[in-house]
Design brief:
Strand order of the largest sheet: 1-2
Radius of gyration: 19 Å
Shape: elongated
Bound molecules: protoporphyrin IX containing FE
CATH topology: Fumarate Reductase Cytochrome B subunit
Structural class: mainly alpha
Distance between the termini: 12 Å
Largest sheet: 2 strands, antiparallel
Order of helices and strands: HHHHEEH
Helix content: 55-70%
CATH class: Mainly Alpha
Strand content: under 5%
């Protein structure tokens, strides 16, 4: 059978799993309450957990931009027969996940910039003043650190729900939805 009808193309699959691993690792390695510690004057460059969190988070942003470019030109994704409500909820979940994959890193840049914290990345990279967000009037709109933490929790819950749905497809409905994102059998 033509694999285009059963599987996502290899690049979409690779980018999906790399992104999933990076999001989960950024969340797990995300140190609790480090926003508060930075408010109290902690230099984030002195904490490996913060540097790793920010580096993984920016990797998610870069992978997502690459995926969105690929989405515009890639081969058609596989289609499965399922009720309209199921198609619609899959579409809505994917749409929200795409939005969150962008909104989580953007809110982090807003938090760092508006609160005057540096961006600190692996390899000793440090940017003290972030373009656009530093000292901007966006600071008055929200507590971006709070917003970022909340969106970080939401993306984890939603991707958990999305993973459960994929497993239900595999175990109960026995269709090829989960397999379409997994490596092809030779
Ligand atoms: C998918 C990627 C990411 C996820 C899932 C995520 C998740 C989280 C969560 C759950 C928190 C709250 C931690 C707590 O205090 O309990 C947090 C805080 C924070 N994250 Fe991320 N994050 C991501 C990407 C990023 C990026 C790209 C950056 C910076 C470039 C970043 C910088 C921060 C900062 C500075 C805080 C502290 C915010 C504050 O309270 O002022 N994160 N993140
Ligand atoms: C943070 C974790 C995750 C995120 C952000 C995420 C996000 C996404 C996105 C945006 C898509 C659409 C992909 C595209 O069109 O190229 C997708 C598809 C898919 N994901 Fe995930 N995912 C995550 C974790 C998982 C996990 C753990 C599983 C399985 C247990 C999974 C199974 C699937 C499957 C089977 C599809 C194809 C579904 C379909 O076409 O209806 N994902 N995911």
């Amino acid at each position: 059978m033509n694999t285009a009808h059963t599987h996502y193309d290899p690049l979409s699959r690779a980018l999906h799993w790399l992104t999933a691993i990076a999001v989960i690792a950024a969340f797990i390695l995300g140190p609790e309450h480090f926003g508060r510690e930075m408010h109290q004057g902690l230099d984030p460059a002195t904490r490996l957990d913060i540097v790793v969190h920010e580096s993984l988070g920016l990797l998610v942003a870069a992978l997502t931009l690459l995926r969105l470019l690929w989405l515009a030109v890639r081969p058609a994704k596989p289609q499965f027969d399922m009720p309209a409500w199921m198609q619609l909820s899959a579409k809505a979940t994917h749409g929200l996940l795409w939005l969150l994959l962008l909104a989580v890193p953007v809110s982090a840049m807003l938090a760092l910039g508006t609160e005057g914290h540096p961006l600190t990345l692996l390899g000793g990279i440090r940017i003290d003043e972030l373009p656009i967000t530093a000292n901007s009037s966006l600071a008055s709109l929200a507590d971006w650190g709070e917003v970022h933490g909340l969106l970080g929790d939401v993306i984890l819950w939603l991707s958990g729900l999305h993973a459960v749905a994929a497993i239900v497809h595999h175990v109960a409905l026995k269709d090829g939805v989960l397999r379409s994102m997994l490596p092809q059998r030779r």
